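Figure 2 data, in text form.
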Amino acid sequence: MLNQTPASSSSTAVTYETNLSIDERDVVMKNLHKLLKSHNREQLGGEHKQPGCSRQADVDSQTPEALAERACQPLPSKLPFAIACDGNYSALKSTIVNNKLLGCFVIGGECRLCFPQVRALCLGEISTQQIDEAMQFLAIANALASEEQLIELKRAGLAHPSLSKCELITKTNAERLISVLHSGGTPPMDDSQRSQLLSLKVVHDCFGGCSAFLYPDLSPTPCFECRTCYRMFKPEDFCRHTHQPTSDKNICFWGFDASNWAYYIRVDDSEAMPTEEDEQRFVIFIQGYPNHQI
């Protein structure tokens, strides 16, 4: 742990006190060098590089104290949503989509899924032609796995050993694709049951948006009734449900996670301002719903 001590009035020097041994300090400084080489390179004129990178000579010429001070400062960024990732794009991880556990790589804060696995587990009954047409309509373009990623996918049994290439689809695009190809939900409830329940108008704006009636008394069974098709949904399924899928190529869809449904769904204010009682009922529903993420 490095502790900065105030300099005297006659000097502008900065000193540091540390309880680390010499060997431990060498390890720390070695790691700081690696960190700065990876993330703190400054831009060079006319060269292609990531924001916030610096010249190798600048890194090597700095003192350990200066490196330690810079390492504690936030990384500069010119991107509005830049996220520092671990840099190991070949580390196979897992995520859940449509209640299926899928393998993925995390790149730039977004999960990229093995597309053959998505097709097999989430779209198994959908024809290839339907999938291709939906992807074209949604303007979804998959990336190809790198050689290292392909090796990891084969090693984990997620890609066939004979594959020479494998597509990766972002988790957000996988959710969009599933929402278009799967009606989802359960059949509409009986009118007699509906008349005995208190409802709350809610809405979400994901992938084109949708409005519904929420019946809190039905929780944790499907309790969101789509106002268009009247099918019943759980909140994590309703937040991706839409009858007006967005296909604008100029829109970037990024970072969607159905487990964050409580951040996507809100009380509908399109027809009238929701009352304080309505807002409170919705808050109580969120807090009481099993495994909510807020």
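Caption note: The chain has three domains: 3-71, 93-181, 191-288.
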